[in-house]
TrEMBL record:
It comes from Planococcus massiliensis. One of its GO terms (biological process) is peptidoglycan biosynthetic process. The record marks 260 as: Important for catalytic activity. Functions as a peptidoglycan terminase that cleaves nascent peptidoglycan strands endolytically to terminate their elongation. This is Endolytic murein transglycosylase. Belongs to the transglycosylase MltG family. It is an enzyme of class 4 (lyase). Keywords: Cell membrane, Cell wall biogenesis/degradation, Lyase, Membrane, Transmembrane, Transmembrane helix. The lineage of its organism: Bacteria, Bacillati, Bacillota, Bacilli, Bacillales.
């Protein structure tokens, strides 16, 4: 066989190099394409991540979250605090946002911020020292209202819902069960006790509630009030456990003080009267429980009214009623857990609403003759 000529060898080598070059080019092209895809996907994911981080945490939330910004806080600590409180999605992105927009001079203080606020609204609030977002309207629930009074005097007057719609919602068994799952520490089985009139009676905290949408749902309104009650009662959870008492007991006791007291000092003293009577096995004999039991407002009770038989009447039954008879404010709740120390067992209110206390029944009768008469 003839040996290949130098020309043939050179030609074959060139052909092989061309093939190798093509393969290399294909590999390079594939690698470049893969890298482009990786960069493109990474860029897309990064864009989505940043875009998402710049949006409100929950655009539909109406829950006000308290944030305490200490004096001397820097941007890093403020951003981490906001992320920890669930008001921003990412502290690092927020810092870039603040620096990019040349924001500075945040004010120390206590803020009520919402997860539905934009980064700009949160930032403006921290710069001006006040909440930048103004509510569209507010609902005020005064202390001492029953569930039915909240329905007629608050819900019906301040929203587009009727009292009947509100009462239907707060007495719906399935809804009550749902709320018990959401608030397991606050709403225990006690609220569904055999003689409890309304499960949520006394559990909608008296306060002013801001709303940032025109037509908030009934569920949102109700949960705002439950959130407030849960926030207040949870502060005393350790105390209640030490006393071996429950939130239901606390709110029931506090509701009696709310209906009887006209001043803070009265709450603490009336609490001492109730404790003294309970400890000695005496009925509490407080008129508001009779009025609640009868289901009608009365300026004055007569002897026959005290004979009205109902589980809520503390004239006919010893101990606390089955549940709260109204919404108690923070001062009444505090008075239950920090009562005055007295030897009083009786009290009555005169025509001016001033309470007069007595240690014995004879002293009580004298007060009755002096301040009330026949």
């Amino acid at each position: 066989m003839d040996k290949p000529s130098k020309k043939q060898i050179m030609f074959e080598r060139m052909s092989e190099k061309k093939k190798e070059t093509k393969v290399v080019r294909r590999i390079v092209a594939i690698i470049a394409l893969v890298l482009l895809l990786i960069v493109g996907v990474a860029g897309f994911l990064a864009y989505n991540f940043v875009t998402s981080a710049l949006e409100p945490v929950n655009p539909d939330s109406e829950k006000v979250i308290e944030v305490e910004v200490p004096i001397g806080s820097n941007l890093d600590s403020i951003a981490e605090l906001l992320e920890e409180k669930g008001l921003i999605k990412n502290a690092r992105i927020y810092k870039y946002y603040v620096k990019f927009n040349n924001h500075s001079d945040f004010q120390a203080g206590t803020y009520g911020l919402l997860p539905s606020m934009t980064l700009d609204e949160i930032t403006e609030s921290l710069k001006t020292g006040k909440v930048y977002r103004e509510p569209l309207f507010s609902i005020t629930v005064p202390e001492g209202l029953t569930l039915e009074e909240i329905a007629t005097r608050v819900i019906e007057e301040k929203t587009d819902y009727t009292a009947e719609e509100f009462m239907a919602r707060v007495t719906d068994e399935a809804y009550i069960d749902q709320l018990m799952n959401e608030y397991p520490t606050l709403l225990t089985d006690e609220i569904k006790g055999e003689n409890v009139k309304f499960a949520l009676e006394g559990y909608l905290f008296p306060a002013t509630y801001p709303f940032y949408e025109e037509d908030p749902s009934l569920d949102l309104i109700i949960k705002q009030m439950l959130d407030a009650t849960n926030s207040v009662v949870s502060q005393y959870q350790a105390v209640l456990e030490e006393m071996e008492k429950t939130p239901h007991w606390l709110l029931t006791f506090a509701s009696l003080l709310e209906e009887e007291a006209t001043a803070q000092a009265d709450r603490e003293t009336i609490a001492s009267v109730f404790y003294n009577r309970l400890n000695d096995g005496m009925p509490l004999q407080t008129d508001p429980t009779v009025i609640y039991a009868m289901g009608e407002h009365k300026e004055r009770l007569f002897n026959k009214d005290y004979e009205f038989e109902d589980p809520y009447s503390t004239y006919q039954n010893k101990g606390l009623p089955p549940g709260p008879i109204a919404g108690a404010g923070a001062s009444s709740i505090q008075a239950v857990l920090d009562p005055a120390t007295t030897e009083y067992y009786y009290f009555l209110a005169d025509s001016e609403g001033v309470n007069h206390f007595a240690k014995t029944y004879d002293e009580h009768l004298k007060n009755q003759a002096e301040y009330i008469g026949n």
